[in-house]
Design a protein that fits this description.
Elements lengths: L2 H23 L9 H10 L5 H6 L1
Amino acid sequence: MTKSALRRAYLARTGPKRKRQPAHRHSPSKQRPAGESKAVGLHQGAHIDLRGDRTH
């Protein structure tokens, strides 16, 4: 195993996963209309919008 081969094996495992996760986090088109409910949710203690977006 050369260094380049190790890099390919490493990127094959980690690369796609790292790209997919931010893609879900940075898709706030569904979340932007819920931005108002987020501000209200802070006072109500809603955990679906705020914590759900960051953990998932």
